[in-house]
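Researcher: Please translate sequence to structure tokens.
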Amino acid sequence: MTVNDDSFTNWMHREEIAESMIPIIGKLHREQDVNVLLHSRSLVNKSVVSILKTHRFARQIAGEELSVTETMPFLKALTTLDLGPSQIDIGMLAATYRADGRGLSVEEFTAQAVAGATGDNKIERRASRDVVLYGFGRIGRLIARLLIEKAGSGNGLRLRAIVVRKGSGQDIVKRASLLRRDSIHGQFQGTITVDEANSKIIANGNEIRVIYSDDPTTVDYTAYGIKDAILIDNTGRWRDREGLSQHLQPGIGKVVLTAPGKGDVPNIVHGVNHDTVKPDERILSCASCTTNAIVPPLKAMADEYGVLRGNVETVHSYTNDQNLLDNYHGSDRRGRSAALNMVITETGAASAVAKALPELKAPITGSSIRVPVPDVSIAILSLRLERETTREEVLDYLRNVSLASPLKRQIDFISAPDAVSSDFIGSRHASIVDAGATKVDGDNAILYLWYDNEFGYSCQVIRVVQHVSGVEYPTYPAPAV
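Model: Translation complete:
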């Protein structure tokens, strides 16, 4: 047998193992509300090739490829346990087991590592929480996709309605079509049908009512069977407490804004300050995509090295508030063609750091340039540190943060030498550290942080909504603090 034959035989063997993983992962998700992860990446509803690629990606951050032959025993061990709702990272189980010197079997080690999710310790399944989307643009449709994707177990969050302004003929059909096909993020994973007579879109069995309104004060959501819902405002039309309070109509319990909040509206970056949300807070903001991209790595660097001052320059994809071709616009420069120009504009991300990370006293400045790409941006974070360090030390630290810290769902890490913006379309992390571009000179560090300003940000919004709704389940093994 040749070397090529050996490689192909090995590939087919790993394909067979990955294929056998799929029903186990699906059953754990549907029957026990367990989300199986691999280094923070969900394996639920993934194909054989996707599972293998996710394992192979581990080499980018852990330095060596992770094989399904290593993780499969841990997945099998989970099926023998009385698990409650949780997120379990089999990549971390395999990595920590490899470093464990107690001589435990895989079954014994797994039982100990996830003990908080078993037996008397397990969390009981909670009733699903209603969600309403106010607005159905770029972020609204991506949030809808995520909500539908996460509804598989029948618990957690349930998208009940979208609220939009009435369009012209075949309004619901056109909105369903935009949900079904996306030029950047591809096809919707599932089936979508339209019930025009009852103003509904049915996506993977989820009945979503389409409510027409241009005034949030006129909608009684209880008339549609909606109660104590979390309303996600994707319009950005109102940003202060007074304006957003208009959404607090019958059937709505909380309002979450997908834009920076003004005044006393809390700006929440999941992973950094989500645990500061007061239980009785009814209005909050998820800040901006750029704030979500820079605050987690900024916190990580401040925790380890201290930060005296910083500057962030964002090179941002164009957005719907710019003109496709030159035309009048209320803001400076944004009237010039977004598809043909680099456009200097302002960003509030630097000033928003103080709201999300008040313990950081260092001044942070910022500026932004919009560029002719439709999605994925990069933030260049220049920091003056409190102590000198080296590039190798910073990269090792950030790699470990992305693997095993409480910020591992926010910060990703890549060492590929030829990575470009389109590689990060669909990333679920708030930001991705580009190891190859990182620069460190004594007490000066420059981090290049990629982020999918649409999908990655939408994932952060969902995490906040899960947290405030009480359906954010714990992750095992618990990340290092």
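Researcher: Any highlights?
Model: The mean pLDDT is 92.
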